[in-house]
Structures are given as structure tokens and as C-alpha cells.
Amino acid sequence: MSSSASPPSRDLKTIAGIEKSLTFSSFTADTAWEVGNALRSRLLNFPIPAVVNISLANSNQLLFHSATRPGTQPDSDCWVARKRATVLRWGCSTWSMHNKLGGDETAFAAKYMLGEGAGQYAIHGGGFPIRVNGVEGVVGVIVVSGLTQEQDHQVIVETLEDYIGKSQSWD
After folding, report:
1. Domain spans of the chain, in order of start
2. What stretches of 22-148 show up as alpha helix (H) in DSSP?
3. CATH number of 12-170
4. Whole-structure pTM value
5. I need a labelling partner for 36 at 20 to 30 A (CA). Which of 46, 68, 131, 137 fits?
6. Distance CA 64, CA 104 (A)
7. Over the stretch 116-153, which tens digit does the pLDDT of each residue have?
8. Tell me: the pLDDT tens digits for 120-130?
């Protein structure tokens, strides 16, 4: 695999369609382990460190967390928390929120009347909702942080396309 990811779409309908298509038939701790390891393996192709985090939506239950190489900073976990909070509050990827608001964090804070709480959310790519067929809402969140926001997002998309594509062919 290469140390690049194809550029993600910036079209909101396309982004929503991709998110909907990447729905799991089920999601367990074993699934999180497999997806987390697939993401970590994919990220090892990039020369800079990144963090992978997978957690459940109904709690702060952590299912997977890993740095890809030396050099991650404590700030990485702050980004993970901020991206996770955005996915949980708005039910879509952080990349979708980024493109919905043109990346304008001031407009984002004003639109949602976040005031001084705006810093707990991030509209940078890399936060992705976990959805399961037959279950309403988001059941978990996948976060990648450390690359460019486009790469953070697209690595998740490409890894899930591969993982879900293979798992559906087994069904």
C-alpha cells in the first residue's frame, strides 16, 4: 500500500452516501480490534505518526487505541476527543461537518451557538460514525488523527470499504 490516500469528496451528498454505504452488519469488540489493526497497518505506510481510536457511542468505552509510530504527542488524544464529540453530537463524520461549513470554525461556533464550548469540537476530517444495519443512530466512533485532515478521513473510508466489502462477501 502507498503512503497516500485518494482525495476525499467535498460534496455533502456524496459524503453522506459514502457514510451510509459503510454500515456494518454487526459491530463487536472483535470488529473494533480487526478494524483498528487494519487502520494501524494502513497508517504504517505514512512516514509520520498517527493515532487510531475506536470507542462506543453510549459511553466512553474504549475498544481500540494505538499510535502508529514514535512521535505522537499528548495533543493527539485531545484531537481524538474533539473529533469524537463532533461525530456523537451531529451524527456524521467530521469531514462532512468541515465541508458543510467550509472549514470555518468561527461560523461553526456561531451556527451552533457553542460559545466558549466550541473548543470541545473539531470540524477537521478524521472522525467517522460507526453504524450498524437495523440499529438507529451512531453506535461508535472511529478516529484517526495525525495526518492531514483529508488523509485522516480518507484512510478510514478506504479501510472500511475494504473491510466491509470483504465481510459482506462472507455473508
Report:
1. 12-170
2. 29-43, 75-90, 94-100, 105-111
3. 3.30.450.150
4. 0.94
5. 137
6. 31
7. 999 999 999 999 999 999 999 999 999 999 999 999 99
8. 999 999 999 99
